[in-house]
Structure formats: C-alpha cells, structure tokens
Structure to design on (298 residues):
C-alpha cells in the first residue's frame, strides 16, 4: 500500500505562498546553522574528543548516529552533516529563483518544489535538534559527576527522546554533497503532486526516484509559510533568540564539564547555567506554543 505522505502534507499547506518566503526561510535557516548550531557542535565535539562520555544514554544514541554516519565522534559527524546542509540550503536559495514563481499556489506543488521546501525544513529541524542534543548531552554527562541540579527539564528530556528518530531521518537526508542533491532534484518527476501522480510514479519509478532524500519518514508538520506578517516576524525572532540562548548555555556547560572532570567546581558558573537553562526552557515553551497555536512546522 502506498502512503501518500507528500500529498497529505500539501493538504495542510496554505493555499498560496511566495518565492520570497522560500528564500527568507532558507536564509534564516542558514544563518542560525552558521552562527549558532555549528559552534555548539564544535564545542561539544571537542569535549567528547578529549574523553568519552560516561552516560549510558548518551552513548547509546551516539552509537546509532555513528552506525549511520560512520566515524568515531558523533558530534563531529553531526557537525559535518550540518556543514553539508548549509551548502544544500545555498543551492535551494539560489535555485528557488529559477523554479518558483513570484507567487505560487500549493495546488501546483511539484515534486521538485516540495523536495526543496521540505529539505529546508529538514535542515531547520536538524539544526534545532542538534543544539538541544548538545545541551542535553552535556547536562546528562554533568549528572555523572554529581550535578543533577544542572539537568534539563522533564519536557526537554521527553522531546529529545521522542524526536530522535526524526533527527536520524534528517541527518541521513542531509548527508550528501550539493552535486548529488542537484542530481536528485533534476531527476524528480516533472509533475504536480497529487494522489494519482504519487501513486503512479511510486509504482512505476519507485521511491528512489520520487523520494531520493528519503524524507517520507520525516514526521514533523509541514507548514513552513502558514503564518503571515507579524506572526512570521515574531516566530523568526523567537527562533533566533532561542538559538543564541542555546549557544550561550552550551558554552557554559562545556566549561563546567571540563572543570568537573578535573574535580573542580565553580558555584558562580553553575548558577549562571541554571539561569540560562531556565531561559532556554522558557523560549522552547514559547516556540512550542506558537507551533500549536498557528499549526506551524519549522
């Protein structure tokens, strides 16, 4: 039985959108990855390289990441994928000038347009999850040294566990160079997505041709441009503020864990971590509320 995941996602999409919205989405995602997510991953990668983590749950998830991506340092591998994602997003932004009209209708969504939009969203989600995974891992590892008071909230623990499968789908989808991504886009059926075309092409061409990025299994809601005007501005501002907060928090956690490994402690630093964790938790809650209220994806 064919699962019409592409077509069903489009049904929840707003009826019209613009090329400029596509480009802004790509630009903002790339900016957050470069300015916040990659530095977070670099910091935790360095800590991991200096000594394997003790926490069993971190190591269990890292093994899954390394199983799919190879290498020895899971955080370095995630960083490598996010560097590739930046280049793929660059291509999406550039190519959007060619394949999207100034104004678009979701009813005319082709396989290529859908794949480009979904890829930007996949990268945005991977960027957010990557930062949260770094923070969660450092918090969990600090607990191994007796610092349970510096842990993340119960909701954040649940979020990390519930969304790990989507994170793996995202990493595997983004783990490719620009030339292969371009080939995938060029090889997609030149047709509007509908139940009929998805059924026909999936049966005759196979998923390798209709879903080369293997993003049918990515379950995050698909409504990247559902919101308008001030809602969009607030959403983007909240996302950027949250990314900045994540970076600040992770930089502090790196210092705290390095000190804990040598038997040292810094009460002032630990107080700052607790404060910034509360801010990060509040921002995450605000963003989740906007997702629910406005039926947003990424």
């Amino acid at each position: 039985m064919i699962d019409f995941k592409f077509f069903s996602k489009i049904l929840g999409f707003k009826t019209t959108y613009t090329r400029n919205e596509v480009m802004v989405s790509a630009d903002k995602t790339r900016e957050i990855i470069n300015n916040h997510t990659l530095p977070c991953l670099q910091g935790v990668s360095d800590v991991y390289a200096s000594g394997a983590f003790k926490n069993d749950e971190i190591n269990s998830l890292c093994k899954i990441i390394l199983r799919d991506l190879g290498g020895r340092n899971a955080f370095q591998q995630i960083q490598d994928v996010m560097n590739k994602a930046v280049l793929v997003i660059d291509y999406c932004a550039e190519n959007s000038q060619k394949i999207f009209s100034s104004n678009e209708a979701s009813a005319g969504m082709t396989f290529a347009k859908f794949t480009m939009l979904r890829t930007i969203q996949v990268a945005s989600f991977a960027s957010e999850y990557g930062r949260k995974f770094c923070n969660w891992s450092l918090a969990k590892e600090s607990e191994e040294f007796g610092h349970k008071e510096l842990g993340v909230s119960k909701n954040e623990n649940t979020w990390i566990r519930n969304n790990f499968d989507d994170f793996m789908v995202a990493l595997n989808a983004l783990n490719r160079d620009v030339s292969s991504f371009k080939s995938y886009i060029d090889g997609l059926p030149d047709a509007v997505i509908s139940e009929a075309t998805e059924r026909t092409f999936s049966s005759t061409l196979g998923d390798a041709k209709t879903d080369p990025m293997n993003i049918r299994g990515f379950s995050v809601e698909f409504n990247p441009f559902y919101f308008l005007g001030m809602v969009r501005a607030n959403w983007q501002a909240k996302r950027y503020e949250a990314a900045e907060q994540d970076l600040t928090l992770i930089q502090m956690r790196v210092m705290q864990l390095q000190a804990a490994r040598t038997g040292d402690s810094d009460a002032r630093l630990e107080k700052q971590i607790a404060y910034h964790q509360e801010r990060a938790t509040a921002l995450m809650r605000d963003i989740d509320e906007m997702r629910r209220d406005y039926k947003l994806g990424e």
